[in-house]
Design goal:
This protein is α/β, with parallel strands linked by helices and 775 residues long. Among the domains are: 220-283 and 593-646, no CATH class; 293-443, no CATH class. It contains 28 helices and 20 strands. The chain has a six-stranded mixed sheet with strand order 4-3-2-10-11-20, sandwiched between helices. Strands 12, 13, 14, 15, 18 and 19 form a six-stranded mixed sheet that branches. The chain has a three-stranded mixed sheet with strand order 1-16-17. A hairpin with a 7-residue loop joins strand 3 and strand 4. Helix 12 runs antiparallel to helix 16 (552-575). This is Actin-related protein 5. It comes from [Candida] jaroonii.
């Protein structure tokens, strides 16, 4: 059999990436070894991660997820509490994982206290008065709620007895770190886990009155990606966890530089080859146990014996039915012979006793019974040589009564003669059928021999001849298909011709001009049952009109040509090395996957291997159990989603969010809210430093897209500068560490006494934090 054309050289295997879960850090959280009383502790607590350390270090000592879990250990029956990465160490604990956050708001302060206990323990906080004797610097979101700050004040002052506390905005701390403590004018775009903020900075201070928030961040992105993949693969065998979708988003999504252009062309074959990402979910393929030759032979023998047993049982049932029909036939033969001596009235009474309506009803049943017996006897003789052994029958002596006239026979001999005539007819029919089969086999054998000699003599000529013959038949089939399709269009010539034929047949009562119709109309008493002029059907060609109307001829011709095509394709697949499964009519008439956007969207830039296996002749069960198919069913193709999910930051309506995107917010901020765009104005100065920070700033092309978007709404020659944070994860903590040594920080602490006097509404304003709403 000819191999497939499309080998590995044309479709190389795609790189497969593992569908990752949360990777557990094997190294335990370190304990800080340089603790010193009075040194500020910087805590950057977000809804995704917490970063904490003393400011006498260059980096945070502890970075871990803001998660905890409580579960009862079975052996010791103790209630254990795990925090951070420890919650992923045991798969049984994962169902108990909790977060103190609901969105960007803290809803469980018990969990926060546990996380703080864990943090201070790993910072090796030492105390003689059961207090944390260090100032605390913490981050908070812009325009934080009173309940949020009140809870943190009470936690730090009343539970841990911290001497003084101050708060700041994480994205502004990140900007402070990336300016080496010298902030000027800028636009800070902070895209975090729960939201994205656009904060203008003028003269080193955040302008909170012009700050805008977009309710979209990393958490919503991974949830939206999970929904897209669930909709794309509704029957995917594994359930995608939040950890799966988070890793897919972080590892494979990127910001499109020109979304509309990329969306239009991402499913083009040449582009899809590089953009399509294949993710392989874990799957265990159990190798099928190979059976020994003895087991296969035993199974084959068992199936054969079972088949013979079923055949024998069926044969017995058929013979019983045949015997019953023969007895019934003999009874009705005698019954019919009595009619010669009865009057019509007596015949009708006899028929009614046998449940027949009249003589025509009886004759119809009798004729059908006779045909059924002949057909069944013929089939039995063809299918079973033991039933009738024609070799032991001498046609000259087997039926002696057939040639004797009925006048010379008595009633019993006439009955026997009828049976012998029936048997003789069956015998002759069998002999004719056997002769036809022998002749067909001889012709087939002769044809095969001629074809074999032709192939041995001139294989190339034989292949060319068969290809030409196949092409002619396929062309004929396609033309016929076009004709059948044209019948669906009522304006086509073929459809109009058929309508004319129908109109001619139905026009007898409406003025048909042929002679037969005129005669019929002159005979006013004629009906459809007794019209002597109605000769329709006397000629077999009359019925072709109905065949033309119903397309029976075309469909029969299509069926015959299809059989010939299959036979020619089978021969070419066997002997022609250049004829492949892709050249067959079935493969050609299937959809072209390269032009199917749906196929490329779901299966990537590769053909569907299950269709190829069907063309190879494999059964559906074999295809479903094939290891390659099992692996394929556990794969995700991520292509359009790679740019669609990050694009929501610029077009929130994609996710149904009724808000402005980053571009619209920044355009409104620069061209309207910060005043007229002119030299040395605030709007002119802030575009000199557009700073991007937060977890989503790690997406590739984020800064390039910001440049393209700002260029679109800024005047030509505007001094635009866009940059990203050096390390968006720990830059806010570095900014707090750098800021802790300044006089501004020392004057921004709120002491416990001030908290008790002014309440949680009171804060001391500084350039990197929120504003105080108290008068």
């Amino acid at each position: 059999m000819a191999p497939s054309k499309k080998g590995p050289e044309e479709f190389p295997p795609q790189t497969k990436y593992a569908l990752k879960e949360n990777t557990v850090t094997q190294v335990d959280q370190p304990f800080y070894q340089h603790y010193d009383t009075g040194v500020p502790i910087a805590i950057d607590m977000g809804s995704y991660q917490l970063r904490a350390g003393l400011t006498n270090s260059n980096t945070p000592n502890n970075i871990f997820p803001t998660l905890m879990a409580r579960y009862r250990e079975r052996k010791s029956n103790q209630l254990l509490t795990l925090v951070g990465n420890d919650v992923y160490r045991d798969p049984l604990i994962r169902s108990s994982i909790k977060s103190p956050f609901d969105g960007s708001i803290i809803t469980n302060w018990d969990y926060v206290e546990t996380i703080f206990d864990y943090t201070f323990a790993h910072l090796n906080v030492q105390s003689t008065n059961e207090s944390v004797n260090n100032p605390i610097i913490m981050t908070e979101p812009p325009a934080t709620t009173l309940n949020y700050r009140k809870g943190l004040y009470e936690m730090l002052f009343e539970t841990y007895n911290a001497p003084q506390v101050t708060f700041g905005i994480d994205s502004l701390f990140s900007y402070y770190a990336n300016t080496n403590g010298k902030p000027q004018d800028a636009i800070v775009i902070g895209s975090g886990h729960q939201s994205t903020h656009v904060i203008p900075v003028c003269q080193g201070k955040g302008v909170l009155s012009q700050t805008k928030r977009i309710d979209w961040g990393g958490d919503q992105s991974q949830q939206f990606l999970g929904k897209l993949l669930a909709l794309k693969y509704p029957y995917f065998p594994s359930r995608l966890t939040p950890a799966n979708t988070t890793n897919i988003f972080q590892d494979h999504c990127y910001v499109s530089e020109d979304y509309q252009h990329d969306l239009k062309h991402i499913l083009d074959m040449d582009i899809l080859e590089s953009k399509d990402i294949v993710l392989q979910a874990p799957v265990e393929i159990v190798p099928e146990k190979k059976k020994s030759e003895e087991e296969i032979a035993a199974q084959t023998l068992k199936r054969r014996e079972q088949g013979k047993r079923l055949q024998e049982q069926a044969k017995v049932r058929r013979q019983e039915k045949l015997l019953q029909k023969q007895q019934e036939y003999e009874y009705f033969v005698n019954f019919k012979s009595e009619f010669e001596f009865l009057t019509p009235g007596e015949v009708q009474k006899r028929l009614q006793t046998e449940n027949f309506d009249d003589l025509s009803d009886f004759n119809k049943y009798f004729t059908n019974l006779e045909k059924s017996i002949k057909k069944q006897e013929h089939n039995e003789e063809d299918s079973d040589d033991e039933g009738f052994n024609d070799g032991n029958i001498d046609p000259l002596t087997a039926w002696p009564l057939v040639g004797i006239p009925d006048e010379q026979l008595n009633a019993e001999e006439i009955k026997e003669k009828r049976k012998q005539k029936l048997h003789k007819g069956n015998y002759e029919a069998r002999q004719k059928s056997l002769e036809d089969k022998r002749r067909e086999e001889e012709e087939r054998a002769q044809y095969e021999q001629e074809q074999k000699e032709w192939r041995e003599r001139d294989m190339e000529g034989w292949c060319s001849s068969k290809r030409i013959e196949l092409a002619q038949i396929i062309h004929r089939v396609k033309e016929r298909n076009k004709l059948l399709e044209s019948f669906k269009d009522r304006k086509s010539m073929a459809a109009q011709q058929r309508m004319r034929s129908i109109a001619d047949l139905a026009n007898d009562e409406n003025g048909s001009t042929n002679a037969a119709s005129r005669k019929r109309r002159r005979n006013a008493n004629a009906t459809i049952d007794n019209d002597p002029n109605d000769t329709f059907g006397a000629n077999d060609d009359d019925w072709n009109a109905y065949r033309d109307i119903t397309n029976v001829n075309l469909e029969e011709e299509q069926a015959e040509d299809s059989k010939v095509i299959l036979k020619l394709e089978e021969e070419l697949l066997t002997y022609d090395a250049n004829f492949h499964h892709e050249d067959t009519l079935a493969a050609q008439t299937t959809f072209d996957w390269k032009n199917s956007s749906l196929h490329k969207f779901i299966h990537g830039p590769r053909p569907n291997i299950s269709l190829a296996m069907e063309l190879e002749g494999l059964e559906q069960d074999e295809i479903a159990a094939h290891p390659e198919i099992i692996m394929k069913n556990h794969q995700l193709h991520v292509n359009v989603e790679r740019i669609r999910v990050p694009e929501i930051l610029f077009q929130p309506h994609i996710a149904g969010l009724d808000q402005a995107g980053i571009t619209e917010v920044c355009d409104d901020l620069v061209n309207r809210r910060l005043g007229k765009f002119e030299t040395d104005s605030p709007s002119y100065n802030v575009i000199k430093d557009v700073f991007i920070t937060g977890g989503l700033s790690n997406l590739p092309n984020f800064d390039t897209r910001i440049v393209n978007e700002f260029t679109g709404f800024l005047p030509i020659g505007a001094p635009l500068r866009v940059r990203k944070a050096q390390d968006a994860t720990i830059d806010p903590w570095k900014g707090m560490k750098l800021w802790s040594d300044t006089n501004e920080c020392k004057g921004s602490y709120v002491t416990k006494a001030e908290f008790e006097e002014y309440g949680p509404e009171y804060i001391k304003e500084h350039g990197l934090g929120n504003v105080c709403l108290m008068e």
